[in-house]
Structure formats: C-alpha cells, structure tokens
Amino acid sequence: MPRRRKTPLRQKIKNSIMDNTLKKDLCDFLKDAERIAVVGIGQEYRWDDAAGIIVVEQLFEQFSGGSAPPLNLYDVEFETKYGKLRLYQGYETPESLTGSLRQFLPTHVLFIDAAQLAREPGTCELVPISEIQGEEISTHNVPLSLLGEFLQKDMGSEVMLLGIQPFSIGLGEKRTLSPPVERAVGLICKVLEDVLR
Fold it and tell me: Both ends of the chain: CA-CA distance in Å?
C-alpha cells in the first residue's frame, strides 16, 4: 500500500499562513458581492500556465457535487453566501468572454492565472488590476489590466487577479502542474470553497 508522504513542518506552517492570508484577502474583496464571476485563464499545455483553468474545473466539481464540467461552464449558476456564482474558462483569450460576462453583470470578477510575482513557485497573491502596470505580470499576452479596466468601467465590476507564481511554463505534451503549483491549486480551491459556502 502506498504511504502518504509527510509534509515537512515548515511547509505546513507556510501553507497555513498563506491559507489564512488568502482567506482574509478574498473575504475583504467579496464582502459586498452579489454576483461573482471566477475566470480561469491559461494555456493548457504550458505546464503551470494551466493552473487557472484547473482551479475553475475543480471548483465546478466541488460546487456541483462531483459533476464533470460542461462545455460552457457559465451556463450553470451556483448559490453562495454572497449571492450567485458563475465559473468561466478564459483560456488564453479571456476577452472573448465579455459578452457572457455582460449578460451576468458580475459585481465582482476574480481572474485566476499563473503570474510572475517574483516569489517562490506556488505562492498565491491577490493583486488589484490597478497594480498591473507596464510589463504584464500575467504569463501570456492578454492585457488583463485593460480587460479589468473595461469590466470596471463598462459593468461597474470590482476586479482582482489571483496570481499563482509558476515554476515552469514550458511546452508539454499533456497538461501537467509542478508540485508547488499543484499544492497551490488545491489550497486555492479549498479556500474559495470555505469563503463562498
């Protein structure tokens, strides 16, 4: 029988601190939310760049009671303690979702994406869209700062990026996450479910 590998105490403490900080930041961001859009962004076959996509898929499974995600996730709405929740897959072109987002009129939009945070791989941080300036911290060419500003001005949405520091965004033959980013994805899903339920 395979044995579970023990997590070093230092890693457990670090995860606990990140868990508490992330939970507090998300609660502050969502405190007056009525309609929440969570948008996963990334390229599936660029290692850790798939993190945002995987978070949204796992969140769908958690909130739906284990159902496989449909082609259009945003056709399904979930009730949370803040109000309605819709999940979106933006892949590498989140700007293509503006029509669907406009129909939902979210009060709060949370982008989840691999981002260059200049931290250890797997570190998660909530970043206001206004702080994404000059060089894009996202790992692709999509100008999330412009998309975020558009959503703020056009729909009055509060917009944040939940960035995950990647270990690698090199091309792969299949969708794979590095161990620190895989742990971060699990932590984000747990924290988001705790915050929203």
Answer: 35
**Residue 70 near residue 76 (C-beta atoms within 8 A):** yes
Strand order in the sheet with 84-91: 77-79, 84-91, 35-41, 108-114, 158-164, 124-128
How far is residue 59's CA from residue 90's CA, in Å, rounded to a whole number? Answer: 15
Kindly give, in sequence order, each residue whose CB lies less than 8 Å from that of residue 76, ignoring residues fewer than 6 positions away: 60, 64, 70, 86, 87
The string of pLDDT tens digits covering residues 143-153 is 788 889 999 99
Topology at the third CATH level for domain 9-196: Rossmann fold (3.40.50)
> What pLDDT shows up at residue 159?
96
> CA 126 to CA 124: how far, in whole Å?
7
Strand ranges, E, within the chain: 35-41, 77-79, 84-91, 108-114, 124-128, 158-164
DSSP E strand boundaries for 42-168: 77-79, 84-91, 108-114, 124-128, 158-164
